[in-house]
Amino acid sequence: xxxxxxxxxxxxxxxxxxxxxxxxxxxxxxxxxxxxxxxxxxxxxxxxxxxxxxxxxxxxxxxxxxxxxxxxxxxxxxxxxxxxxxxxxxxxxxxxxxxxxxxxxxxxxxxxxxxxxxxxxxxxxxxxxxxxxxxxxxxxxxxxxxxxxxxxxxxxxxxxxxxxxxxxxxxxxxxxxxxxxxxxxxxxxxxxxxxxxxxxxxxxxx
Length: 206
Description:
By secondary structure, the protein is mainly β. It has helices spanning about 20-25, 190-205; strands at about 5-10, 25-30, 45-50, 55, 60, 70-75, 80-90, 95-100, 110-115, 125-135, 140-150, 160-165, 170-180, 180-185.
């Protein structure tokens, strides 16, 4: 395998979660109260919703040139909000979910960017999600931890498979101040990550 190529992660396709199942029956979306967590950097607007175990969710929104995606937050056993990304088929039935994401040592996960892009050798585009966790602790550290997730949605049955980039260490990183020292993560937006994917493709073709 040449540098920069993409291979499927060893994990199996991801099945529907209880959060996604609950969101299929959800009703009563309303603006979040003043005491709600900060979702201001979310790619999709987050609302309060009556759909146990879900506390907050977006409405399903179609990614440009892609599938409808819905974000749902539920409390885990530690009373922390976990984010689930639900991906729907065009017919409205459940396709799959893209995993559940906890605090990772920061605050709740926020899906800051969701788009389609070409990330492997086939002609179909993949679903790309940028997750961010706000970090603020007493050791002069504050900022955002970022992680990119790329999913192939072209498999039989509509299941998702996570793509593993060979340059995996580059697809996550911290941006802000760490122990008093400024740190910059270069892939913290859609434009930068698309340029990164193009570079991977160019190197793969050499």
